[in-house]
Amino acid sequence: MSVSNGPISSVGTLADERVIVLDFGSQYAQLIARRVREQHVYCEIVRHNISIAAIEQRKPSAIILSGGPNSVYEKGAPKCDPAIFKLGIPILGICYGMQLISESLGGKVTHSPAREYGRSRLKIGNMADLFAGFPHEIDVWMSHGDQVSNLSDEFEPLASTSTCPFAAVSHKSLPVYGLQFHPEVTHTSLGGTLIHNFLYNIAGCEGRWHLSNFVTQTIEHIRKIVGKNRVICGLSGGVDSSVTAALLYKAIGSQLSCILVDNGLLRKDEQTAVITEFTKHFKADLHVVDGEALFMNALAGISEPQEKRRRIGHAFIECFKAEAAKIKDAKFLAQGTLYPDVIESGAAPDGPAATIKLHHNVGGLPEELGFELIEPLRDLFKDEVRRLGAELGLPEALVWRHPFPGPGLAVRCLGEITREKLAVLREADEIVVSEIKNAGLYRQTSQAFAVLLPVQSVGVMGDARTYENAVAVRCVNTDDFMTADWSHLPYDLLARISTRIINEVRGVNRVCYDISSKPPATIEWE
Ligand code: XMP
Question: Mean of the per-residue pLDDT values for the chain?
Fold first, then answer.
């Protein structure tokens, strides 16, 4: 049996009102899609050069052209089929998208004399449609080196900033609009309202994208496809796999079997916590595999990060495969793949060009397992998955759990892994997370953890000299985990974390706080 490339997902195929975002390489394309969905309209990201036939097949209510790093007048700059403007479908171009619209329809784009990055004051001259209900001035977020210098007569300016005369424009006879600023970023005040106005006032959307509909539709869809067969779901205790399991459980109940592989790289008491949560919420069949010895053998003597990941990936497949073979009559394998994974792996049909995160493929089980894939979350963003989890009745502690990487503590225990080092790391990590929770900052931070460094340093404890390990504390804030800022935690909290780790964790005499952003650093240390 081969793995199906047509995974079960409901909304992508069933959404009856949708907007498409043509991605010209913008760092904000996903953010645009999320903002549209926040307005209850399903939105997907597609390649900038998608064919007209593929657009028409999707029957979009509106099209958004994203920003991008190129200049429209450069040779080889990404373009869309100009026939798109003749479809009669409302179009909103943002930044590069706006410049492309202008250039395609008779205007001129040049390098602007004053580049604008950051906040600007927008003066609105036309308060109809797009700016309905707006004040005359708002703050907007700009990030451009080029701008429209000559507007064709076919267009009308709607708003300007002190250096950008055409900061918002509309076509006089086509439903085509352009914005030089970014309504999708939170720094633009009323950005959500602007997107709402475009969707509802201009594109006539009705707002039919609701998670409750998603649940009903997906459950029906799963039942139809699965029939009387059994589905296996890998469980990690993270929000994605838990929501996948919850959705499947609701759809097919006792036909669901879950497998939890304990790779010996979990956090303190994690296995017990996952089992307790699981048994509290589901009556489904649960298989717990104790893979600790297998993983530790596979990792012995290995310190190169990618090799560690590769070996963990193989060991995981070995454990999972052996356990899955014990489950009779299973035909499907469920995975908690999310929309950003689909986009970033380049697997979306007509999706934007791949920017593959090679090291994030640990959960991807190979074809050799011989199941058909079910990926019910494959059209959802993380925040939607969390809301879905809450809607399905999962506890808040699970729904708001920080992400934990597939290779677990192995990528936070730098260099060679030993049981002793993992034990030290577990204790330190538990202190970091519990102190952040106690300070009421867990929900406000995106990921917080300890890293055990392969460094020893001199200290003094009591009257004795010590020569022990250093621990780094990493805590970040991020929307999408592709870029991240280090969290500006209060000093007294950092002091408490440091004192507790040094006092309570044997073998650690120094704690550092990681103040690097991503990029150029990554969130994990390996
Ligand atoms: P980086 O370190 O690339 O991490 O900035 C971004 C996000 O991905 C998680 N991460 C992983 N998740 N397998 C996973 O399942 C991995 O190998 C892996 N590496 C990083 C990381 O925790 C963060 O949320």
Answer: 91
For residue 5, what pLDDT band results from cuts at 50, 70 and 90? very low
Burial of 449: CB neighbours in 10 Å, binned 0-12, 13-18, 19+:
buried
Contacts of 293-297 spanning 24+ positions with Cβ under 8 A: 293/264, 294/318, 294/319, 295/263, 295/264, 295/265, 296/264, 296/417, 296/419
Residue pair 452/412 in contact (Cβ under 8 Å)? The answer is yes
For ligand 1, atom 12, name the residue with the nearest CA.
405
* CB atoms near residue 275 (< 10 Å): 16
Q: Does any ligand 1 atom lie closer than 6 A to the CB of residue 407?
A: yes
DSSP string of 123-173?
EES--SGGGTT--SEEEEEEEEEEEEEE--TTEEEEEE-SS-TTSEEEESS
* Catalytic residue numbers, as ranges: 95, 182, 184
Shortest-distance Cα residue to atom 16 of ligand 1: 360
Strands 108-124 and 137-150 turn out to be antiparallel
Burial 41-63 (b: 16+ CB within 10 A, else e): bbbbbbbbebeeeebeebebbbb
Mutate to test the pocket of ligand 1, among 311, 359, 401, 446 (most ligand atoms within 8 A of CB): 359
Ligand 1 centroid distance, CA of 172 (Å): 47
Ligand 1 atom nearest to CA at 525: 2
Spell out a b/e string for 115-138, using b for 16 or more CB atoms within 10 Å of the CB, else e.
ebeeebebebeeeeebbeebeeeb
Cis ω for the linkage preceding 157 (within 30 of 0): no
Ligand 1, residues 361, 524, 526: which to mutate, most atoms within 8 A of Cβ? 524
Q: Report pLDDT for 393.
A: 92
User: Mean pLDDT over residues 232-259, rounded?
Assistant: 94
For ligand 1, say whether the CB of 483 is within 6 Å of any of its atoms: no
Residue nearest ligand 1's atom 4 by CA: 523
Name the residue at shortest CA distance from atom 14 of ligand 1: 405
Q: Nearest CA to 311 among 332, 331, 296, 326?
A: 296
First to last CA, the chain: 36
306 lines ligand 1 (CB under 6 A): no
Whether residue 462 contacts residue 493, with contact meaning beta carbons closer than 8 Å, is answered with no
Could you identify the atom of ligand 1 that is nearest to the CA of residue 361?
Answer: 13
Q: Are 252 and 231 in contact (CB under 8 A)?
A: yes
Residue 313 CB–ligand 1 contact under 6 Å: no
Confidence class of residue 347 from pLDDT cuts 50, 70 and 90?
Answer: low
Residue 440 is which amino acid?
Answer: G
pLDDT of residue 480: 77
* Residue 461: per-residue pLDDT: 86
> 451: closest CA among 477, 432, 478, 476?
432
DSSP state of 48: T
Helix, strand, or coil (residue 47): strand
